[in-house]
Amino acid sequence: MLVFSLTVAYTSWQMPQRVEFGPGMGFLPFWLAVLMAVLSVLLLFDASVRKSASTGNPFPAPQALLNVGMVIAGLGVYIAVLDTVGFAVSTILYIVFLLAIVQKERWLKTAIVSLLSTGGLYVVFQVLLDVKLPRNIFGF
Amino acid sequence: MEILQNLLTGFEIALSLKNLAFCFMGVTLGTLIGVLPGIGPVTGVAILIPITFGMDATTAIITMAGVYYGAMYGGSTTSILINVPGESASVMTTLDGYQMALKGRAGPALGMAAIASFIAGTFSIIMLSWIAPVLADYAVAFGPPEYFALTFMGLTLVTGFAGDSLIKGLMSGAFGLLLACVGVDAISGSPRFIFGSIYLLDGLGFIGVAVGLFALAEVLVNIEEPLKQVFVKTKLNMKTLFPNRQDWKDSAGALWRGSILGFFVGVLPGAGATVASFLSYATEKKLSKHPEKFGTGVIEGVAGPEGANNSAAGGAMVPLLTLGIPGSGTTAVLMGALLIHGIRPGPLLFQEHPEVVWGLIASMYIGNVLLLILNLPLVGMWVSFLKVPYQILMPLIVTISAVGVFATDNNIFDMWIMFGAGIVGYVMRKLDFPAAPVVLALVLGPMVERSLRQSLTISHGDISIFFTRPISAVLTTFALLSLFAPLVRKFWRTYRRAKMEQ
């Protein structure tokens, strides 16, 4: 499994970087890409030689992986809607999502934490640091 | 005497009410970050960059450096009380510190950790204030080949020391350098690797990458399985915190050796506080009259490593300030922060921005005193922070990171960079790729490329320019040698084993 995941990771890493540019500005990237390619081959070789010593798949069990995926997906949605939904609403919703759904906390605790931390962030960034946080069409 | 004069000016700057307040804030946050497992100094400094963005450069760097060495203090608390290192540099402290706590001697262990941190920290700042200006004077004469050799050496040393696989370290470094190539080429002025996006013209946002790679990736790793915490219950008050006379006698030697060792390990690019604490523990065990007692709760095992990691934090400032070469992940992030403030660390820093350098150095003296005060009487308060469950902390770290990254440029695109870097960082961590070389290479990348191409232009494409000038020859050779260091180590080990079997 380790060898397999490494193979996938490294071959995909190699491909887009093997691009040559004009001399000068393409100089460093090109040689870096060559270096990366050589290293990937070395690593693959190394991994296949030490196959017996490898300790299985480094990624966690499905349940944990699901959690990781949910945090990432939630963050993606959060960033995507931030500009239209506004800072306050989307931040509260994201924290609620993280606490109540990903970590299965009780709802009361979730509500308190999400309100307090969103408020705290607002005070620090908008009031103290004078950052213009995104607002929705209703102005919050 | 010039140094004393400079230090005095530094103190004048650092003692202004604003800087003092932010120094206090920095070390307090640093202690907190050190205490909380699952969030380390790199993450803390990375998250702070956006927040310090609006400050002037001196105040910003004072705050962020405070987080860095403050975390070295805080990390010991968790190690001793719950056997979980608050950050990687405190791993060694768990060995004897936790055992001491189990024996009901948590107080002296915590007290000694704080005092050792203070003594070693102060020692390394004194060394820093004497050595750094001399080194900077010397480095002013460097030309492009020397710079290339120097940055090259910094990169190879970090990749060599980071993680256990040289190949993976090198790949991380090369990956970081490639990331640094994104944006407008500094010499010809034409864009490359921007994939038609105007946001990428300026290069990949450093803050986004750093926060994603460290803060976000750390959250993702931690969410997999929640930490289980078991407290050792102890009464903590002023009386129980002070080590007794026997403790002092036992740890005095360890403390001094740890301080000196830590400083020099910190100065070396690539080896940081973590390596320093490991080395110190190993040294003490070797020198001790009763090595078999190590791991059962001897106070030397706390004093040495705790001293060493603080001393290393000060030592790491030397290459950062004088040469512009960060030696670790945290200092790389610090350097990125300085660059964002328009300040380029390096030999000229001492002439161009003496207020930043000396203000920072003076603030470190003050910060250490503040930390001693914060950590001795108030240790009980920090312990209560440990009871904040990670479930609540996690959303906070994610949202602070996200909003912070947004706040630097009011730019949602930077958040996407953080998002991507977070996923890359998570995968890298799972596959045992060190993240520090990526950030280091990203920060140093433009400098490496410019000095490399300038040198080759000077020499008309002749690569021997790096070997014919004395300083650059030494540095380049050293860099190349360091690449083979792990191989040598491997051979040495097999050789030793073979010898043992005879």
Give a written overview of the molecule:
The complex is a heterodimer of chains A (140) and B (502). With 140 residues, chain A is mostly helical. Helices cover 70% and strands 0% of the residues of chain A. Chain A is built from five helices and no strands. In chain A, α1 packs antiparallel against α2 (27-49) and α4 (87-102) packs antiparallel against α5. Chain B has one domain (2-225, 265-501). Chain B has 23 helices and two strands. Helix content of chain B is 75%, strand content 1%. A two-stranded antiparallel sheet of chain B has the order 1-2. Chain B is mainly alpha-helical and 502 residues long. At the A-B interface, α1, α2, α3, α4 and α5 of A face α8, α9, α19, α20 and α21 of B.
Features:
heterodimer, A: 140 residues, mainly alpha, 2 domains, B: 502 residues, two-stranded antiparallel sheet, 23 helices, 75% helix, 1% strand
TL;DR of this structure?
The complex is a heterodimer of chains A (140) and B (502). With 140 residues, chain A is mostly helical.
Q: Are there runs of chain B of 5+ residues with pLDDT below 50, and where? A: none
Number of strands of chain A: 0
Strand order of the largest sheet of chain B: 1-2
Say how many strands of chain B there are. 2
Low-confidence stretches of chain A: 15-23, 51-55
Range of strand content of chain A: under 5%
Count, helices of chain B? 23
Taken together, the total number of domains of chain B comes to 1
Q: Termini distance of chain A?
A: 49 Å
Secondary-structure map with pairings?
The complex is a heterodimer of chains A (140) and B (502).
Chain A lengths: L1 H13 L12 H23 L12 H24 L1 H16 L4 H22 L12
Helix pairs in contact in A: 1-2, 3-4, 4-5
Chain B lengths: L1 H13 L2 H19 L5 H11 L5 H26 L8 H12 L3 H34 L4 H18 L4 H15 L2 E2 L6 E2 L13 H19 L13 H4 L3 H23 L5 H15 L12 H16 L1 H7 L5 H12 L8 H4 L1 H22 L3 H7 L4 H20 L2 H19 L5 H23 L6 H4 L1 H32 L1
